[in-house]
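Forwarding the complex inputs:
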Amino acid sequence: MPGQFPTPAMAEAPTATATGAAAPSRDDVRAELERILTDVVGDDLLLDGPLTDETSFDADLQLESIEFVALADQLLATYGEQVDFVGWMAGMQLDEIIGLTVGQVVDFVVSAVEG
Amino acid sequence: MPSPPADALGFLFVVPPFTGHVNPTVPVAARLVADGHRVAWTGVPGTVEHLLLDGATFLPATPPEVTGYAGEMAARRSDLRGAAAFKFLQEEVLLPLGDAMVDGVDAAVDAFGADVLVVDQQALAGAVVGRRRGLPWATSATTSAELVDPLAGLPLVAEAMHRRRVELQLAHGIPAHVAEAGDLRVSEHLLLAYTTAELVGPLAVEAPVTFVGPAIAGRPESDDFPWDRIDPSVPTVLVSLGTLNAEAGARFWQVAAEACRGQRWQAVFVAPPELVPDAPANVLVRRHVPQLALLHRVDAVVSHAGHNTVCESLAAGLPLVLAPIRDDQPVVADQVVQAGAGVRVRFARVRAEELRTAIATVLSDEELQAAAGRISKSFAAAGGPAAAASSLVALGSGGVGGTH
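Prediction (whole assembly, two chains):
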Protein backbone atom coordinates (compact mmCIF):
# COMPACT_ATOMS: atom_id res chain seq x y z
CA MET A 1 0.00 0.00 0.00
CA PRO A 2 2.67 2.62 0.84
CA GLY A 3 3.82 4.32 -2.31
CA GLN A 4 0.66 3.53 -4.18
CA PHE A 5 -0.93 6.92 -3.50
CA PRO A 6 1.78 9.56 -3.72
CA THR A 7 0.64 12.77 -2.11
CA PRO A 8 2.33 16.09 -1.36
CA ALA A 9 2.36 15.13 2.29
CA MET A 10 4.26 11.94 1.55
CA ALA A 11 6.82 13.85 -0.44
CA GLU A 12 7.40 16.16 2.49
CA ALA A 13 7.39 13.54 5.18
CA PRO A 14 10.86 12.09 4.59
CA THR A 15 12.43 15.55 4.91
CA ALA A 16 10.68 16.09 8.18
CA THR A 17 11.74 12.77 9.64
CA ALA A 18 15.09 12.27 7.95
CA THR A 19 16.58 15.42 9.42
CA GLY A 20 15.31 14.37 12.83
CA ALA A 21 15.51 17.93 14.07
CA ALA A 22 12.29 19.14 12.47
CA ALA A 23 9.69 16.97 14.20
CA PRO A 24 6.21 18.02 13.10
CA SER A 25 4.22 20.29 15.37
CA ARG A 26 0.85 19.26 16.76
CA ASP A 27 -0.81 21.64 14.28
CA ASP A 28 1.07 20.04 11.38
CA VAL A 29 0.03 16.59 12.50
CA ARG A 30 -3.60 17.56 13.07
CA ALA A 31 -3.75 19.08 9.57
CA GLU A 32 -2.20 15.95 8.12
CA LEU A 33 -4.60 13.73 10.08
CA GLU A 34 -7.49 15.80 8.73
CA ARG A 35 -6.21 15.28 5.19
CA ILE A 36 -5.84 11.53 5.72
CA LEU A 37 -9.28 11.21 7.29
CA THR A 38 -10.87 13.23 4.49
CA ASP A 39 -9.23 10.86 2.05
CA VAL A 40 -10.34 7.78 4.02
CA VAL A 41 -13.83 8.92 4.96
CA GLY A 42 -14.79 11.27 2.15
CA ASP A 43 -15.54 14.96 1.83
CA ASP A 44 -18.47 14.89 4.23
CA LEU A 45 -16.02 14.32 7.09
CA LEU A 46 -15.93 18.05 7.72
CA LEU A 47 -19.62 18.82 7.27
CA ASP A 48 -19.96 19.35 11.01
CA GLY A 49 -16.95 21.65 11.17
CA PRO A 50 -13.20 21.14 11.39
CA LEU A 51 -11.63 18.40 13.45
CA THR A 52 -10.75 19.36 17.00
CA ASP A 53 -8.71 17.56 19.64
CA GLU A 54 -11.99 16.47 21.22
CA THR A 55 -13.45 14.89 18.04
CA SER A 56 -14.09 11.22 18.85
CA PHE A 57 -13.46 8.45 16.35
CA ASP A 58 -16.28 6.26 17.61
CA ALA A 59 -19.13 8.63 18.55
CA ASP A 60 -18.39 11.60 16.25
CA LEU A 61 -16.69 10.16 13.17
CA GLN A 62 -18.18 6.63 13.51
CA LEU A 63 -15.11 5.25 11.81
CA GLU A 64 -15.76 1.79 10.39
CA SER A 65 -13.21 -0.98 10.91
CA ILE A 66 -12.18 -0.85 7.26
CA GLU A 67 -11.57 2.89 7.67
CA PHE A 68 -9.41 2.29 10.77
CA VAL A 69 -7.29 -0.06 8.66
CA ALA A 70 -6.96 2.58 5.93
CA LEU A 71 -6.06 5.24 8.52
CA ALA A 72 -3.34 2.99 9.97
CA ASP A 73 -1.96 2.34 6.46
CA GLN A 74 -1.86 6.02 5.60
CA LEU A 75 -0.19 7.01 8.88
CA LEU A 76 2.44 4.38 8.14
CA ALA A 77 2.88 5.66 4.58
CA THR A 78 3.11 9.27 5.73
CA TYR A 79 5.32 9.03 8.81
CA GLY A 80 7.10 5.72 8.47
CA GLU A 81 7.31 2.61 10.57
CA GLN A 82 7.75 4.32 13.91
CA VAL A 83 4.12 5.43 13.74
CA ASP A 84 2.68 1.99 14.50
CA PHE A 85 -1.00 2.83 14.97
CA VAL A 86 -2.08 -0.83 15.06
CA GLY A 87 0.52 -1.64 17.72
CA TRP A 88 -0.53 1.41 19.72
CA MET A 89 -4.19 0.39 19.68
CA ALA A 90 -3.22 -3.15 20.76
CA GLY A 91 -2.30 -1.67 24.15
CA MET A 92 -5.76 -0.22 24.74
CA GLN A 93 -8.71 -1.33 26.82
CA LEU A 94 -12.19 -1.24 25.32
CA ASP A 95 -13.16 2.06 26.96
CA GLU A 96 -9.97 3.67 25.66
CA ILE A 97 -10.82 2.56 22.12
CA ILE A 98 -14.38 3.88 22.45
CA GLY A 99 -13.11 7.19 23.82
CA LEU A 100 -10.28 7.65 21.30
CA THR A 101 -10.03 11.27 20.14
CA VAL A 102 -8.23 13.17 17.40
CA GLY A 103 -6.10 14.89 20.05
CA GLN A 104 -4.85 11.54 21.38
CA VAL A 105 -3.89 10.36 17.90
CA VAL A 106 -2.09 13.67 17.26
CA ASP A 107 -0.14 13.29 20.52
CA PHE A 108 0.67 9.69 19.64
CA VAL A 109 1.98 10.63 16.18
CA VAL A 110 4.05 13.52 17.52
CA SER A 111 5.69 11.42 20.22
CA ALA A 112 6.19 8.44 17.89
CA VAL A 113 7.91 10.62 15.26
CA GLU A 114 10.11 12.23 17.91
CA GLY A 115 11.01 8.70 19.00
CA MET B 1 -40.38 -38.82 34.24
CA PRO B 2 -39.90 -42.23 32.57
CA SER B 3 -36.49 -42.92 31.11
CA PRO B 4 -36.29 -42.60 27.33
CA PRO B 5 -35.39 -45.70 25.30
CA ALA B 6 -31.72 -46.56 25.54
CA ASP B 7 -30.79 -45.21 22.12
CA ALA B 8 -33.05 -42.11 22.12
CA LEU B 9 -31.51 -38.92 23.47
CA GLY B 10 -32.91 -35.60 24.66
CA PHE B 11 -31.32 -32.49 23.10
CA LEU B 12 -31.93 -29.10 24.72
CA PHE B 13 -31.12 -26.11 22.49
CA VAL B 14 -30.08 -23.07 24.55
CA VAL B 15 -30.53 -19.95 22.44
CA PRO B 16 -30.13 -16.17 22.77
CA PRO B 17 -32.97 -13.80 21.80
CA PHE B 18 -31.68 -13.37 18.24
CA THR B 19 -33.60 -14.70 15.24
CA GLY B 20 -30.47 -15.48 13.26
CA HIS B 21 -29.19 -17.69 16.07
CA VAL B 22 -32.44 -19.63 16.47
CA ASN B 23 -33.20 -20.28 12.79
CA PRO B 24 -30.25 -22.64 12.12
CA THR B 25 -31.24 -24.84 15.08
CA VAL B 26 -34.64 -25.63 13.56
CA PRO B 27 -33.55 -27.93 10.70
CA VAL B 28 -30.96 -29.60 12.98
CA ALA B 29 -33.65 -30.32 15.56
CA ALA B 30 -36.02 -31.58 12.84
CA ARG B 31 -33.38 -34.05 11.77
CA LEU B 32 -32.85 -35.26 15.34
CA VAL B 33 -36.60 -35.80 15.73
CA ALA B 34 -36.74 -37.69 12.43
CA ASP B 35 -34.03 -39.97 13.84
CA GLY B 36 -36.14 -40.74 16.92
CA HIS B 37 -34.68 -38.28 19.42
CA ARG B 38 -36.38 -35.66 21.60
CA VAL B 39 -35.70 -31.93 21.27
CA ALA B 40 -36.64 -28.77 23.15
CA TRP B 41 -35.54 -25.15 23.26
CA THR B 42 -34.90 -22.83 26.18
CA GLY B 43 -34.27 -19.10 26.15
CA VAL B 44 -35.98 -15.77 26.73
CA PRO B 45 -39.75 -16.32 26.33
CA GLY B 46 -41.38 -14.38 23.53
CA THR B 47 -38.19 -14.22 21.44
CA VAL B 48 -37.95 -17.84 20.32
CA GLU B 49 -41.28 -19.68 20.15
CA HIS B 50 -42.57 -18.08 16.94
CA LEU B 51 -39.45 -19.27 15.10
CA LEU B 52 -39.98 -22.94 15.98
CA LEU B 53 -42.02 -25.55 14.20
CA ASP B 54 -45.60 -26.09 15.38
CA GLY B 55 -45.76 -28.30 18.44
CA ALA B 56 -42.14 -27.65 19.45
CA THR B 57 -41.33 -27.72 23.17
CA PHE B 58 -40.12 -24.39 24.58
CA LEU B 59 -39.12 -24.02 28.22
CA PRO B 60 -38.76 -20.41 29.40
CA ALA B 61 -35.36 -19.76 30.94
CA THR B 62 -36.28 -16.39 32.39
CA PRO B 63 -39.23 -14.59 34.00
CA PRO B 64 -41.35 -12.22 31.86
CA GLU B 65 -39.49 -9.05 32.87
CA VAL B 66 -36.35 -10.32 31.12
CA THR B 67 -38.29 -10.35 27.83
CA GLY B 68 -38.90 -6.63 28.27
CA TYR B 69 -35.24 -6.06 29.08
CA ALA B 70 -34.12 -7.97 25.99
CA GLY B 71 -36.46 -5.95 23.77
CA GLU B 72 -35.29 -2.66 25.25
CA MET B 73 -31.63 -3.63 24.78
CA ALA B 74 -32.27 -4.70 21.17
CA ALA B 75 -33.78 -1.28 20.43
CA ARG B 76 -30.84 0.55 22.02
CA ARG B 77 -28.32 -1.61 20.18
CA SER B 78 -29.63 -0.53 16.80
CA ASP B 79 -28.29 2.99 17.42
CA LEU B 80 -24.75 1.82 18.14
CA ARG B 81 -21.89 0.82 15.91
CA GLY B 82 -18.21 0.03 16.20
CA ALA B 83 -16.51 -0.48 19.56
CA ALA B 84 -19.42 1.01 21.50
CA ALA B 85 -21.75 -1.58 19.94
CA PHE B 86 -19.34 -4.34 20.92
CA LYS B 87 -19.18 -3.14 24.53
CA PHE B 88 -22.96 -2.83 24.72
CA LEU B 89 -23.55 -6.29 23.27
CA GLN B 90 -21.15 -7.90 25.74
CA GLU B 91 -21.89 -5.91 28.90
CA GLU B 92 -25.59 -5.08 28.55
CA VAL B 93 -26.84 -8.08 26.60
CA LEU B 94 -24.77 -11.29 26.54
CA LEU B 95 -23.34 -11.28 30.07
CA PRO B 96 -26.53 -10.16 31.91
CA LEU B 97 -28.69 -12.56 29.90
CA GLY B 98 -26.17 -15.32 30.53
CA ASP B 99 -26.46 -14.63 34.25
CA ALA B 100 -30.26 -14.34 34.17
CA MET B 101 -30.74 -17.58 32.22
CA VAL B 102 -28.61 -19.96 34.34
CA ASP B 103 -31.28 -21.01 36.85
CA GLY B 104 -33.95 -21.40 34.17
CA VAL B 105 -31.69 -23.45 31.90
CA ASP B 106 -30.77 -25.62 34.87
CA ALA B 107 -34.47 -26.21 35.64
CA ALA B 108 -35.16 -26.90 31.96
CA VAL B 109 -32.51 -29.64 31.93
CA ASP B 110 -34.43 -31.44 34.68
CA ALA B 111 -37.91 -30.73 33.35
CA PHE B 112 -37.06 -31.92 29.86
CA GLY B 113 -34.62 -34.65 30.79
CA ALA B 114 -31.79 -33.31 28.65
CA ASP B 115 -28.91 -35.62 27.80
CA VAL B 116 -27.06 -33.10 25.62
CA LEU B 117 -27.07 -29.30 25.59
CA VAL B 118 -26.72 -27.55 22.24
CA VAL B 119 -25.54 -24.11 23.30
CA ASP B 120 -25.47 -21.12 21.01
CA GLN B 121 -22.13 -19.35 21.22
CA GLN B 122 -23.94 -16.25 22.54
CA ALA B 123 -26.13 -18.11 25.09
CA LEU B 124 -23.51 -18.30 27.83
CA ALA B 125 -25.90 -19.78 30.41
CA GLY B 126 -26.04 -23.08 28.53
CA ALA B 127 -22.28 -23.44 28.76
CA VAL B 128 -22.33 -22.59 32.48
CA VAL B 129 -24.99 -25.23 33.16
CA GLY B 130 -23.28 -27.82 30.95
CA ARG B 131 -19.97 -27.37 32.72
CA ARG B 132 -21.51 -27.23 36.20
CA ARG B 133 -23.54 -30.41 35.73
CA GLY B 134 -20.89 -32.25 33.76
CA LEU B 135 -23.30 -32.74 30.86
CA PRO B 136 -22.10 -33.20 27.31
CA TRP B 137 -22.60 -29.84 25.63
CA ALA B 138 -21.92 -28.63 22.12
CA THR B 139 -21.27 -25.08 21.03
CA SER B 140 -23.53 -24.05 18.19
CA ALA B 141 -21.59 -21.35 16.33
CA THR B 142 -24.35 -19.81 14.25
CA THR B 143 -21.94 -17.09 13.19
CA SER B 144 -18.32 -17.84 12.46
CA ALA B 145 -16.88 -14.52 13.63
CA GLU B 146 -15.80 -15.83 17.04
CA LEU B 147 -13.89 -18.68 15.42
CA VAL B 148 -11.34 -16.41 13.81
CA ASP B 149 -10.52 -14.28 16.88
CA PRO B 150 -11.74 -10.84 15.84
CA LEU B 151 -10.00 -9.41 18.92
CA ALA B 152 -6.58 -10.76 17.94
CA GLY B 153 -5.30 -7.21 17.46
CA LEU B 154 -6.69 -6.09 20.82
CA PRO B 155 -5.27 -8.50 23.42
CA LEU B 156 -6.25 -6.40 26.45
CA VAL B 157 -9.88 -6.30 25.31
CA ALA B 158 -9.88 -10.05 24.64
CA GLU B 159 -8.43 -10.71 28.12
CA ALA B 160 -10.98 -8.43 29.82
CA MET B 161 -13.85 -10.22 28.08
CA HIS B 162 -12.40 -13.60 29.04
CA ARG B 163 -12.27 -12.46 32.70
CA ARG B 164 -15.92 -11.46 32.62
CA ARG B 165 -16.87 -14.92 31.36
CA VAL B 166 -14.71 -16.55 34.06
CA GLU B 167 -16.46 -14.40 36.70
CA LEU B 168 -19.86 -15.50 35.37
CA GLN B 169 -18.85 -19.12 35.95
CA LEU B 170 -17.47 -18.44 39.44
CA ALA B 171 -20.70 -16.63 40.36
CA HIS B 172 -22.61 -19.80 39.51
CA GLY B 173 -20.48 -22.21 41.48
CA ILE B 174 -18.01 -23.51 38.91
CA PRO B 175 -14.66 -24.18 40.59
CA ALA B 176 -11.96 -21.64 39.73
CA HIS B 177 -9.61 -24.12 38.07
CA VAL B 178 -12.42 -25.32 35.77
CA ALA B 179 -13.61 -21.78 34.99
CA GLU B 180 -10.10 -20.58 34.22
CA ALA B 181 -9.31 -23.54 31.99
CA GLY B 182 -12.10 -23.19 29.51
CA ASP B 183 -13.94 -20.74 27.32
CA LEU B 184 -17.74 -20.54 27.54
CA ARG B 185 -17.83 -19.80 23.81
CA VAL B 186 -15.97 -22.98 22.87
CA SER B 187 -17.13 -26.36 24.14
CA GLU B 188 -14.38 -28.81 24.92
CA HIS B 189 -16.72 -31.54 23.57
CA LEU B 190 -17.97 -30.37 20.19
CA LEU B 191 -18.21 -27.14 18.23
CA LEU B 192 -20.71 -27.10 15.37
CA ALA B 193 -19.72 -24.47 12.82
CA TYR B 194 -22.41 -23.61 10.28
CA THR B 195 -19.80 -22.79 7.66
CA THR B 196 -16.84 -24.51 6.02
CA ALA B 197 -13.07 -24.12 6.08
CA GLU B 198 -13.26 -22.81 2.49
CA LEU B 199 -15.09 -19.73 3.76
CA VAL B 200 -13.87 -19.24 7.29
CA GLY B 201 -10.15 -19.72 6.67
CA PRO B 202 -7.71 -20.71 9.41
CA LEU B 203 -9.32 -21.05 12.85
CA ALA B 204 -8.03 -19.25 15.91
CA VAL B 205 -9.64 -21.56 18.46
CA GLU B 206 -8.56 -24.98 19.60
CA ALA B 207 -11.71 -27.03 19.66
CA PRO B 208 -13.17 -30.20 18.22
CA VAL B 209 -14.79 -28.35 15.32
CA THR B 210 -17.23 -30.00 12.97
CA PHE B 211 -17.93 -27.94 9.87
CA VAL B 212 -21.49 -28.69 8.82
CA GLY B 213 -22.12 -25.84 6.39
CA PRO B 214 -25.20 -23.67 6.66
CA ALA B 215 -28.43 -25.11 8.11
CA ILE B 216 -30.99 -23.47 5.85
CA ALA B 217 -33.22 -26.25 4.61
CA GLY B 218 -36.93 -26.30 5.16
CA ARG B 219 -37.74 -22.71 6.07
CA PRO B 220 -41.33 -22.01 5.05
CA GLU B 221 -41.58 -18.90 2.86
CA SER B 222 -44.71 -17.06 1.86
CA ASP B 223 -44.63 -16.23 -1.81
CA ASP B 224 -46.54 -13.22 -3.05
CA PHE B 225 -43.51 -12.08 -5.01
CA PRO B 226 -44.23 -10.58 -8.44
CA TRP B 227 -41.99 -12.95 -10.37
CA ASP B 228 -43.16 -11.48 -13.69
CA ARG B 229 -41.35 -8.26 -12.75
CA ILE B 230 -38.00 -10.06 -13.06
CA ASP B 231 -36.68 -9.93 -16.62
CA PRO B 232 -34.73 -13.16 -17.10
CA SER B 233 -32.61 -11.59 -19.85
CA VAL B 234 -31.08 -8.96 -17.52
CA PRO B 235 -28.65 -9.62 -14.62
CA THR B 236 -30.37 -9.31 -11.25
CA VAL B 237 -29.02 -8.21 -7.86
CA LEU B 238 -30.71 -8.82 -4.51
CA VAL B 239 -30.04 -6.02 -1.99
CA SER B 240 -30.79 -6.89 1.65
CA LEU B 241 -29.73 -5.41 4.98
CA GLY B 242 -31.30 -8.24 6.95
CA THR B 243 -34.36 -8.27 9.15
CA LEU B 244 -33.06 -5.83 11.75
CA ASN B 245 -31.42 -3.11 9.70
CA ALA B 246 -33.78 -2.29 6.83
CA GLU B 247 -35.19 0.72 8.71
CA ALA B 248 -31.77 1.96 9.83
CA GLY B 249 -30.51 1.98 6.26
CA ALA B 250 -32.31 5.12 5.06
CA ARG B 251 -29.18 6.66 3.57
CA PHE B 252 -27.95 3.35 2.20
CA TRP B 253 -31.17 2.75 0.28
CA GLN B 254 -30.93 6.20 -1.34
CA VAL B 255 -27.35 5.53 -2.38
CA ALA B 256 -28.22 2.06 -3.64
CA ALA B 257 -31.06 3.46 -5.75
CA GLU B 258 -28.68 5.98 -7.32
CA ALA B 259 -26.08 3.25 -7.86
CA CYS B 260 -28.61 1.21 -9.85
CA ARG B 261 -30.24 4.05 -11.79
CA GLY B 262 -29.79 3.61 -15.54
CA GLN B 263 -27.58 0.53 -15.21
CA ARG B 264 -27.90 -2.58 -17.31
CA TRP B 265 -28.92 -4.71 -14.34
CA GLN B 266 -32.12 -4.90 -12.29
CA ALA B 267 -32.26 -4.96 -8.50
CA VAL B 268 -34.63 -6.21 -5.82
CA PHE B 269 -34.39 -4.14 -2.62
CA VAL B 270 -35.68 -5.76 0.58
CA ALA B 271 -36.65 -2.44 2.12
CA PRO B 272 -39.58 -0.44 3.43
CA PRO B 273 -40.92 1.16 0.21
CA GLU B 274 -41.18 4.58 1.89
CA LEU B 275 -37.38 4.61 2.24
CA VAL B 276 -36.97 4.40 -1.55
CA PRO B 277 -39.55 6.97 -2.66
CA ASP B 278 -38.06 7.62 -6.09
CA ALA B 279 -37.01 4.11 -7.08
CA PRO B 280 -35.55 3.84 -10.59
CA ALA B 281 -37.45 1.70 -13.10
CA ASN B 282 -34.93 -1.13 -12.75
CA VAL B 283 -35.36 -1.35 -8.96
CA LEU B 284 -38.15 -3.37 -7.37
CA VAL B 285 -38.70 -2.54 -3.69
CA ARG B 286 -40.37 -5.15 -1.49
CA ARG B 287 -40.80 -5.14 2.27
CA HIS B 288 -40.49 -8.94 2.38
CA VAL B 289 -39.23 -11.43 -0.19
CA PRO B 290 -39.09 -15.23 -0.37
CA GLN B 291 -35.33 -15.00 -0.04
CA LEU B 292 -34.35 -18.64 -0.60
CA ALA B 293 -36.45 -18.84 -3.77
CA LEU B 294 -35.19 -15.48 -4.98
CA LEU B 295 -31.54 -16.47 -4.49
CA HIS B 296 -32.03 -19.05 -7.21
CA ARG B 297 -33.12 -16.33 -9.63
CA VAL B 298 -30.50 -13.62 -9.03
CA ASP B 299 -26.86 -13.26 -10.08
CA ALA B 300 -25.33 -11.46 -7.10
CA VAL B 301 -26.24 -10.15 -3.64
CA VAL B 302 -25.58 -6.88 -1.82
CA SER B 303 -25.70 -7.60 1.91
CA HIS B 304 -24.91 -6.21 5.37
CA ALA B 305 -22.81 -9.37 5.83
CA GLY B 306 -25.10 -11.06 8.32
CA HIS B 307 -23.90 -14.63 8.57
CA ASN B 308 -27.14 -16.23 7.48
CA THR B 309 -27.68 -14.08 4.39
CA VAL B 310 -24.04 -14.51 3.41
CA CYS B 311 -24.23 -18.28 3.75
CA GLU B 312 -27.54 -18.53 1.92
CA SER B 313 -26.08 -16.46 -0.94
CA LEU B 314 -22.90 -18.48 -1.14
CA ALA B 315 -24.87 -21.72 -0.93
CA ALA B 316 -26.58 -20.53 -4.12
CA GLY B 317 -23.13 -19.84 -5.60
CA LEU B 318 -23.61 -16.06 -5.66
CA PRO B 319 -20.81 -13.50 -5.19
CA LEU B 320 -21.50 -10.65 -2.78
CA VAL B 321 -21.03 -6.94 -2.23
CA LEU B 322 -20.68 -6.56 1.54
CA ALA B 323 -21.54 -3.42 3.51
CA PRO B 324 -21.15 -4.54 7.14
CA ILE B 325 -22.91 -2.49 9.81
CA ARG B 326 -21.88 -3.80 13.23
CA ASP B 327 -21.08 -6.76 15.48
CA ASP B 328 -19.77 -9.80 13.64
CA GLN B 329 -20.57 -8.37 10.21
CA PRO B 330 -17.16 -6.78 9.45
CA VAL B 331 -15.49 -10.09 10.35
CA VAL B 332 -17.87 -12.11 8.19
CA ALA B 333 -17.40 -9.62 5.33
CA ASP B 334 -13.64 -9.99 5.55
CA GLN B 335 -13.97 -13.80 5.47
CA VAL B 336 -15.88 -13.58 2.19
CA VAL B 337 -13.33 -11.15 0.73
CA GLN B 338 -10.43 -13.38 1.85
CA ALA B 339 -12.16 -16.38 0.29
CA GLY B 340 -12.34 -14.44 -2.97
CA ALA B 341 -16.13 -14.41 -3.25
CA GLY B 342 -16.96 -10.80 -2.49
CA VAL B 343 -16.14 -7.11 -2.49
CA ARG B 344 -16.39 -4.98 0.64
CA VAL B 345 -17.71 -1.43 0.70
CA ARG B 346 -18.49 0.92 3.56
CA PHE B 347 -22.01 1.02 4.97
CA ALA B 348 -22.46 4.50 6.42
CA ARG B 349 -20.45 6.47 3.88
CA VAL B 350 -20.55 4.42 0.71
CA ARG B 351 -20.99 6.53 -2.45
CA ALA B 352 -23.25 5.67 -5.36
CA GLU B 353 -20.35 5.29 -7.81
CA GLU B 354 -18.44 3.11 -5.31
CA LEU B 355 -21.44 0.82 -4.89
CA ARG B 356 -22.17 0.83 -8.64
CA THR B 357 -18.59 -0.25 -9.39
CA ALA B 358 -18.79 -2.98 -6.75
CA ILE B 359 -22.06 -4.34 -8.16
CA ALA B 360 -20.70 -4.24 -11.71
CA THR B 361 -17.63 -6.13 -10.49
CA VAL B 362 -19.51 -8.98 -8.81
CA LEU B 363 -21.77 -9.30 -11.86
CA SER B 364 -18.85 -9.59 -14.26
CA ASP B 365 -15.78 -10.93 -12.42
CA GLU B 366 -15.43 -14.62 -13.20
CA GLU B 367 -12.94 -15.23 -10.38
CA LEU B 368 -15.40 -13.94 -7.78
CA GLN B 369 -18.11 -16.12 -9.29
CA ALA B 370 -15.81 -19.16 -9.36
CA ALA B 371 -14.89 -18.65 -5.69
CA ALA B 372 -18.58 -18.43 -4.75
CA GLY B 373 -19.14 -21.65 -6.69
CA ARG B 374 -16.32 -23.39 -4.79
CA ILE B 375 -17.78 -22.34 -1.44
CA SER B 376 -21.21 -23.51 -2.58
CA LYS B 377 -19.76 -26.95 -3.34
CA SER B 378 -18.02 -27.07 0.05
CA PHE B 379 -21.32 -26.21 1.75
CA ALA B 380 -23.14 -28.99 -0.08
CA ALA B 381 -20.40 -31.49 0.80
CA ALA B 382 -20.41 -30.52 4.50
CA GLY B 383 -23.73 -32.22 5.10
CA GLY B 384 -25.79 -29.46 6.72
CA PRO B 385 -28.39 -30.36 9.36
CA ALA B 386 -27.88 -34.11 8.91
CA ALA B 387 -24.17 -33.79 9.65
CA ALA B 388 -24.90 -31.58 12.66
CA ALA B 389 -27.43 -34.08 13.98
CA SER B 390 -25.11 -37.06 13.63
CA SER B 391 -22.28 -35.20 15.44
CA LEU B 392 -24.68 -34.37 18.26
CA VAL B 393 -25.90 -37.95 18.53
CA ALA B 394 -22.30 -39.18 18.60
CA LEU B 395 -21.59 -36.71 21.43
CA GLY B 396 -24.63 -37.89 23.37
CA SER B 397 -23.66 -41.53 22.87
CA GLY B 398 -20.14 -40.89 24.14
CA GLY B 399 -18.74 -41.31 20.66
CA VAL B 400 -16.81 -38.06 20.39
CA GLY B 401 -15.05 -35.63 22.62
CA GLY B 402 -15.17 -36.20 26.32
CA THR B 403 -13.24 -33.84 28.53
CA HIS B 404 -9.67 -32.88 27.97
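Residues 82-112 of chain B form the longest helix (31 residues).
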